[in-house]
Each structure stands twice: as structure tokens, then as C-alpha cells.
Amino acid sequence: MTGIVKFAGAIKTAISARVFGLGDALDAYLIAFSICSFLCDSLAGNLSPALVPLFVQRAEAGGRQEPDASYGGTLYRSLLLLSTCGAVLLICRGPFLHLLALGFSPQELSLTRSLMLVLAPMFPLMGINAVWRSLLNSRSLFVIPAIAPVMTPLLATGFLLFARALGGIYTLALGSTIGVFAEMLILAFYLWKLGIPIFPSWESSFIDMRWFKRDYAPLVLSNFLNGGANLVDQSVATLLAPGSVSTLSLGTRLVSVAMAMGPATLSTVFLPKLSRMVTIRDWKTMQTTIKRWLFVSLTGACLLSSIAILFSSPLTHFAFQKGASNAIDIHALNVVQSLSFLQLPFVVGVVILVRVIVSLQMNRRLVSISLLALVANAVLDLCLVRLLGIGGITVATAMVQALTFLILLRIVKNQFATGVVLSRAA
Question: Where are the alpha helices (DSSP H) in 63-105?
């Protein structure tokens, strides 16, 4: 289901390129959408890994109804948090864009600011969706939460059909926002069918200062630093020729689909399983499970990467050249797309190891690693882009992911080798 969502997103991006071309308008939308989605993913996206272990542990301890007692306060505090952050972004978006879009003209900056205003309602909507998804995933209900986000690319693509008549690039932004609202409606209907209150009374909450400092804040900061690497990539791309941001986004779209079908899905399914093992302190089974999942996932990712690199050129021509009404640099897209798949095996390993650390509630260890990765990514971007052009950004990403994987692997091995896990449980 997650793969379908990402394929729909890839189709939306390809159609966007054909409608608007690789120029200023699409660059402005991609920067605006990247900033909003990055912050939403950092804040709302990390609610799930921070809340699922708590929902699982509470259910194991007191039955299924026990997590529902803390569901209301958690939902409303999350809504307040995301709404506040969205408002702050709107107020500060001018200076923020001057830092991230260094190569944009005043006209492009103005357009990007306007598009961010259209996209801002995603913040509270995604906060609600994240809590609902966490509750469902903690009960091993994955299908509907996974497929519901397809509404965003579907509606955005539908609005693209009327883009030129209804306001150009603004229509694409409006379709994205309405799509998140449609996702919320689907999740609400599913909760109602299961007999779970959509907007329950505020009785108590998982969200307190202890949870914030121990579980949530380290994840947000880590994701902020990791996602900051993507913003750094796009910022470096703005220094290159016009259309470079679009080329980078389009060229990495296919690997994002693959990462959704592999790493993103693994993280969703793997975390509740690990949380249950931690709750019952089944360390031997946990070690065996981690080793098996790493071996199978890395092997599959290496095979998929090899196939994708081999067939990258025909895929690029099929997706972006046939019937294109605007000039698109197919060669540059093919280079970026081929090189982007170098990161896939390392991303798979990183996702699994991060979920192990989260299940053990060692989230603070992720912050320093993410900071190191961000600095390394910026340095490698600036160095490699001089040698390889836009393709150097994707090579830098793969190198940083490899470094992160090796560091995380060493941390997890040391935890089990030294018996720290057992002492923490005791």
C-alpha cells in the first residue's frame, strides 16, 4: 500500500514536469513543498515511532482499552503542537527562504512564500493523522493507514488537469493540501467503523515532559538533522543552473518509491514487533530477528539497486520524455536517478537499526549521529558537485548513508555484546 502511494507521488511529479517544465514555477513549488513536508515529517512523522511503543506497552499491561484512555489528550496536544509550528513557519518563512533558496530571484522567492501559505494547513491535519495512525499501527492494523496518504498525490494530480485554467502552480499546491484533508477523512471513517472515538474526551495523555525529553525530542531533532540534509541538497542545487532543483527532485523520485516499499514499510511493521519483545524482555529472539531482517533486507535492496541502475535509462525516457511539452534534460535526470540508487541498501539497514534503538528507548543516541551526517552531507555536497555536477549530490547522500549505517551497526552490536540491554531492563 505504501508503494502504491509513492508510485502515485511519482506520477504526480512526472505530470508536473510535463505541465510546467523544469523551470522557476516548479522549482518554487518543490522548495515550498519540501520545507512544509520536511517540517511535518519531523514533527508529525516522529509522533508514530514515539507513541507506538507506548501504546503497545500500555496494551500489554492493561488490555486494549488502556491506551484509549490516553488517546484524547495525546491527540489534542499533538494538534496544538503542529498548529503552533505551522504558524511560526508562516511568520518566519521570508528569512527562512533567504537561507535555503540562495539562488532564487526575488520573483521566485515571492512565489515560494505564497505557495507555503497554501500548504500551511497541512500541519494540523498531519498532526491528527499521525496520532490516529499510531493507534492503529499499535494494534497491527497497517493497510488503511498505509493507503490513505494516496489521496494527496491523487488529488494533486487531478487538480493538475485544470492547472493552467485555475491558477497554474497554485492549483498543484491546493490539491496537495486538500489531499491531506481527504486522508484525514479516510482515517476518521476507519476509526469510526472500528468503534474508536474520533475526537475523544481529554482524560490523560502520553505527552508529558518526560516523554518529550526521552522519546520525542531526540527523534524530532534527529529527523530534523536528517531531513535538513535533503534541504541542504536542494539549497546546493539552487546554486546550479535553473531547473536543477526539479532535476534533483525528479531524478530521486523513483528511489523514494523503492524506499517506501522497503525501508518505510519495514519501519512501520518492525517497530510494534520489537516493542513487544522489549516489553516481555525476549532478548534472544530480538537478536535473532534483527540479524534475519538485516540479512534479507540488505540482500533484497542490493538486488533491487542493481536492477534499477541497469534499467535507469529506459525508465527515465519513458517517464519524462515521451509526450513532454517542455524541454527536459533527460541525460541529467538519468545520471541523478542512476546514482540515487547507490544509497538504497544503506537506507534499509539504517531504518532497521534506528527502529531497534527506538524500541530500546535510546533515542538520544540518534541526535549526535544525525548531526555528524548533516555536516558530512554538506561538506560532501559542496565538494562533489564541483566534480560531478548535480549527480555529485546523490553520490554524497549515498556516502553519508553508508557512514550512518556503520555507526548504528556498531552501537547495536555493542548493546547486545556488553549486556547493556539486560541491565537497562533490570
Answer: 65-69, 71-100
What DSSP element (H or E) covers 368? helix 365-388
Structural domain that includes position 245: 209-426
248 and 110 in a single domain? The answer is no
Distances in Å between the Cα of 188 and the Cα atoms of 81, 133, 136, 193 are 20, 10, 11, 9
What total of structural domains would you count in the chain?
Answer: 2
If one counts every other C-beta atom within 10 angstroms of the C-beta of residue 68, the result is 17
One-letter amino acid at 20 equals: F
In which region does residue 95 sit, left (phi positive, over 0), alpha (psi from -120 to 50) or beta (all else)?
alpha
CA distances from 170 to 8, 20, 237, 381 (A): 20, 12, 23, 31
Last residue of a domain, one of 207, 236, 261: 207
Instruction: Say what the pLDDT of residue 405 is.
Output: 92
HSE-CB of 154 using CA atoms within 13 angstroms: 12
Instruction: Return the exposure string of 134-160: e unless at least 16 CB atoms fall within 10 Å of the residue's CB, then b.
Output: bbbbbbeebebbbebbbbbbbbbbebb
Residues 34 and 234: beta-carbon distance below 8 Å: yes
Please give the model's pTM, rounded to 2 decimal places: 0.64
User: What cell was used for 91?
Assistant: 511568520
DSSP class of 213? I
Largest CA distance in the chain: 65
For 246-295, how does the pLDDT look when each residue is reduced to its tens digit (9 = 90+)? 778 777 877 777 776 666 677 677 777 777 787 777 778 888 888 888 88
> Could you tell me where the beta strands, DSSP code E, fall in 269-394?
none
The set of cell numbers assigned to 292 is 534475519
Place of cell 491528527: 128
Enter the C-alpha cell of residue 251: 531524478
Check whether residue 200 and residue 214 sit in a common domain: no
Same structural domain, 107 and 256: no
Read off the pLDDT of residues 294-330 as tens digits, 9 standing for 90 and up. Answer: 888 888 889 988 888 888 788 777 666 554 434 456 7
Grid cell for residue 182:
481527504
Structural contact between residues 146 and 203, judged by C-beta atoms closer than 8 angstroms:
no
